[in-house]
Queue: 2 jobs
Job 1
Amino acid sequence: MNTHSSWLLRASVTLVLATASVTATASPAAAAAGDSFWTTTPSLLGTPVVYVEEHVGARFDSALRSSISFVDRYTGSDMRLGRCRTGYRCIRVVESNATQGYGAWTSWTFGRKTSKIRLSGALSRKGWYTRRSIIDHELGHANGAPHNSRCTSRMWPDDRCRNNRLPARTFTKAERVKLARW
Ligand SMILES: [Zn+2]
C-alpha cells in the first residue's frame, strides 16, 4: 500500500574471489561479513582518485555531480567524471531497470575496485532532490557505507523517512569511519 515500499534501496555485494564469486544481498550481517575485506582495501587503491564513468542522461547529471562532491567530503576521495582507467578505482553509473524492483542498485567487485550503480527509469521521473538523495545513498554504498536502521542519514534504506521527508543529507559517525577508509 505504501508507494515507497517499492523504492527500498538495496546494494548487492559481489565478492570476486580467485575461483568463485559470491553474491549476497547487503544487510547489517552482510556488511559485517565484508569487514575483513575492508582492511585490505588501501593496497588496492594507492590513490584517492576515483573515476566515475557516467552513462546516464542529462536527467541525472547535475544530481550526480552534486552527490560526488558531497560524498568526496567524507571519503577523502577525489572522484572525477571520466572514463575508468587502469590503476584507479572506478564507479560506473548506468541507467538500467535491472534494479531488483528498487529505484537504484549498486554492486561492486573485491575491494570495491569497480562499482556499478544502476539508476532506474522510474527514478529518472522522481524530483531532483529525490534523485540526488538516492544517488548520495548509492555512492555511499559504492564507498563502503552500509544501511542505517534509523532515518538519521542518507543510508536509510528507503527514499523517504517515515515522516515522508528525505533522509538527512549527512552520514552518521559510524558511516563516516567506514567512508574514510575508501
Ligand atoms: Zn541501499
Job 2
Amino acid sequence: MEFSEYFYYPFLAGTIFLFAVVIGRFVKWFMGLSKIDKIRVRIGLFYKKTLESIWESIREGLLHHNIFKTNKMLGYMHMSLAFGWFLLIVVGHIETSCYHGSMFFPFQESVFYRYYVTQPTDFAGHTFFNYAMEILLFFVLSGVMLAYFKRFRSKTFGMKRTTRMRYGDRIGLTALWLIFPMRFLCETFTAGVYHNGSPIFNGIGDAFASIGNLEPWLNPLWLTYSVVLGTFFVAMPFTRYMHIPAEINLIFLRNWGVTLKERRATTFTLAEVYSCSRCGICIDACQLNLAGIKNSQSVYVLKNIRNKNLTDEVLFNCL
Ligand code: SF4
C-alpha cells in the first residue's frame, strides 16, 4: 500500500503549536512572580518538594484521586482518559524504541506506530506490546463512552448540573471525543489488511474486512486521526483543556511555596485560574442554585476572569 508521507503534518503542527503556547505562558507566569516567589521556586526545585510534586501530579492529574472521592464513576471516567492516554504515550514510545533498537526516532512514529509497522516483526516483547497497546486503547475508550453517557445522564455521575460550554470548548471536546474512536478504526482497519495487531484487533479487522475492501479507507482514516489530534492540541490552550498542563504547573508552584500572601493578583493568580478543569463539581455544592442564580458559581467566576469579562453582577451575586 502507498501511504501518504505527509499525513502526520496536522498532528505535528498542533503539537508544536501547543508546546510553544504552553511554554510561553509558563515562562510569562514565572516572570510575573514576585522576587521572593522566584527565589522560592529556585530553591524548591532541588528539594524533596519536587519529588512530592511529581507524586501529587500523578495522583491528581492522572489518577484523579480527589474526583474518585466525590464519585467513583466520575473518577473512573477522568482517570481512564488521562492515565490511559498517558500510558498509551509511554508504552507506545517504549514499543517503538524496542522496534528500532534505539530511543532516537521521529516522534510521530510512536504515535502512528501501526501505520508505519505493517510487516511482521520479531523484536523482543512485540507480542506483549501488541496486547498491551490494544488493552490500553480499550481502557481509554471506556472513559470516552462514559463521557458520552455523562452528557445525557449526568445524575449517574452524582451531578445534577454540568457546566455551560463556549464555542471553543465544544471544538476541543468534539476533537477529544473523536481521537480514540478514530485510533480504534485506524488500527483495526489496518489490522484487517495487514494483520499487524494482536489476535484481538486482527479479529475485529477481519470482521470489518468481511464487509468490504478496507485498503482504500486506510489513508483517509489515518489522516483524519492526525487532524483530530492536531485540532485538539491547537484548541487546548484556549479552552477548558488548558487545565491539563496548568494544574501540573500549579501543583509544583504551590509545593515550592509560591503563595498569594501579598494579597494582590500576580501571574500566580492566572496559574490558579487556568487550573480550573470546569469539572462542575462546585455547581451542585453552591447554595446560590436555590436562589435561581446560575452564573456566579466558582467555575463561572473563574471562566469570566479567564475570558476577561467578569462583571460586578456576577462577582457580587455571591452571598
Ligand atoms: S472551581 Fe469548580 S469546576 Fe473548577 S475545578 Fe474546582 S470544582 Fe471543578
